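tool=predict chain=A
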Amino acid sequence: MVVIIINYKAMRTIIVSPFFVVKQYEYGIYEFLGRYKRPARPGLRFMIPFLHTVRIRDVREHTMDIPSQSVITKDNVEIVVDGIIWARPKADDENVQKSFYNIDSWKNGVMELAMTNLRQEFGNQTLDESLISREKISANLQSNLDTLTNDWGIHVSKVEIKSIDPPDDIKNAMHKQKTAEQERRSMKLLATGKFEAAEQEKLATIQQAEGLQESKVKIAQGEAEAIRLVNESANLYFKGNAVKLKELQATVDALKNNSKVVLTERGISPQIIIGELPTSIKSLPKK
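tool=predict ok
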């Protein structure tokens, strides 16, 4: 028995063979005299030669590169972009049939749709928006492509933008702008640092002055407290002695000035006598 197998863009067509194997990652269909008959699922299968034809599709995820192409942004800047797509035929009877009968080459169809929608997406964005909106553009492309390829039985699972390349003059201008922005931020940070350092120094000076003033107040309070304690002790324990000391001091001062004093039986009176002695004192008997 002669077996003829044709591999063409993820499709394997078995022309003649009574027995064949459908692999785990494949999904096929039987055709009877050119018309769809039934699905051919993974495993060992049998067909009637010349009456049956089996077409088998690889339903794994396929990776396809979107070639670099020039697109014009909303602000009329021409940029070069490329990307990558992950897509696969849906593994069920209805969608496998669609992938065979509704499109001749689903990979080419997906690629053409991707290139068209890529130009449209970037055409709705300015250059600045395009550079910062890769994820948004990728998500929009994935959603649009998945909807458009539904009639082909294809699922587009992911789209990524690999590179966005502006013209050289735009890149130079962007580089200069970025450099100026970095310098401005550096100067701002430096000024902020100096201001914060000055504020810290001012705060330290204030705290130091407050500490010194508080120290002086505490010292004065301590001295006042010591004086108070001394006075209280003197009044409590040395009151009589203090009086005698005062009387003695007054007597010494009087003697220094050649003043007359009163002598009594109890000693020297602290009373200072100015002028003549009283008569009662003159008449005192002499010893």
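Confidence is low (pLDDT under 50) at residues 1-9, 272-277, 280-284. The chain has four domains: 5-58, 62-166, 169-237, 239-282.
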